[in-house]
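Usage

Read records sequentially. Each one opens with the input sequence:
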Amino acid sequence: MFRKVLVANRGEIAVRVMRACEELNVGTVAIYSEADKDSGHVRYADEAYNVGPARAADSYLDHEAVIEAARKADADAIHPGYGFLAENAEFASKVEDAEGITWIGPSADAMESLGEKTKARTIMSEADVPIVPGTTDPVTEPEEVKTFGEEHGYPIAIKAEGGGGGRGMKVVWDESEVEDQLESAKREGEAYFDNDSVYLERYLEQPRHIEVQILADQHGNVRHLGERDCSLQRRHQKVIEEGPSAALTDELREKIGEAARQGVAAADYTNAGTVEFLVEEEPGRDGPLGPETNFYFLEVNTRIQVEHTVTEEITGIDIVKRQIRIAAGEEIDFEQDEVEIDGHAMEFRINAENAANDFAPATGGTLETYDPPGGIGVRLDDALRQGDELVTDYDSMIAKLIVWGEDRDECIERSLRALREYDIEGIPTVIPFHRLMLTDEEFVRSTHTTKYLDEELDQSRIEEAQEQWGGDTGDGAGEDEESVEREFTVEVNGKRFEVELEEHGAPAIPTGGDGGTSQAASPPQPTGSSSGSGSAAVEGDGETVDAEMQGTILDIEVEVGDEVAAGDVLVVLEAMKMENDIVASRGGTVSDIAVDEGESVDMGDTLVVLE
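and closes with the structure output:
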């Protein structure tokens, strides 16, 4: 077993991994950015290392900084959690090549073969796993899309090779949209996954999203731990996950589970993973879907999933601990027929968003009240405590509520009770939305599809739920407070440490400047963009064009010196799974561009200056 594991992630998943390590008597190391220096995962770890400024590309995504932190800490393994570098085959390969450090996850080769969707489709097809009609080679030209449409019909899904969670996927409804949607999918693939390769699939209009949890060891053993139903989605982002699926007969779930196990075995895959399928729904069906129902391989997530907790609750198997043990060379010690599904579980993503305002993410705030629920069958995965400042530089999910019941009805009732108990004040959350869904007829009957929230649900019901159960969401803007930092060098038992002390709300600490003048100690400024005042200086005296929401810069359509007219697109900003064109409100000359492609921005940040 390992001595010390560095968790290359943040927030609730970092704490989740650290808890598993602690139960295995393994030391834990956190990494953090400047924005996360006071975050919960830093408090929980045995030791922590700063890896850079708030911008993820300069901290959590910096390969060398993360590996160097592991070396400094003398960690002998790295666990990536999910997101960030979890499915980055290049980073996994670097860890595998680093002397004395083990990668807790599938091999880089397996990640590359299954992470790139066209390769994964080929592997699954050769293993006799049904796949959605589509291409097994990347497409580059609009004519290839049009030819596919002539053969298979519209709509067509254009998907980024490295995509997931709806990013890098565009739907083409007719031939007139081919050029724009192809370019958009390639652009998102490049921005988010550093890979502009895309492929095509027939777009299923009313599917269910069913995924199977897999564990595979280095001794040839592959087990599936049952399925999860993730059909309640918004813009292809999962909202509520549950298991087992109430929409499947036992015969169909066994077919899907065996297909997943068969495909993973053919890929020579190890560690934890999730095989995702689309299952064709039958409108107006009476009873669950039978074994004759069509299902198709979608993709393999070569990492731990956000919703792994659902499977843990209904199987009693700690998936994260199994990941660590498999990476340490241990063999899976149970047979497939020993996996038993007990009861029903649901996971609710607690996002700092206002569902009534198109799920707009909070732009700041303090957890003035944080009182999570408890009781039998209630689990809370978080990294929060009352008084914490909301960090807005990353994903909006702040916690996960997982509820177990003896059956689905009890799980729903217990979930309603737990959500009523969950008291958060100071920031908006989607708790009112979750309460609404648990009383929604389609969801309760489990007849909803992945399109239900986007195309069928009456949005006024979300507004009513937010008004009724929203509580005090705060204004998202904390009061400015003076803070003073001082740096010290200290020695403890002969070991040298650099220590920073920070004091909030106090007068400036005198520094004994020339002539007796006192001035506040100036904290060191991180390089690169960060939250707060660390944004780049803006040049020019003209009209500024600012970000209307938090997001990521996908494309810059202008250059300094360009003449633009009112309505011209200046910047393409991705926010909440959608591309947003930022346009000029008047004509003028571009005198300054304050952002770069791939940069994260906050609401109000200046993007372009026009004169």
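Summary fields computed downstream for this record:
- Confidence is low (pLDDT under 50) at residues 508-536.
- The first strand starts at residue 4 and ends at 7.
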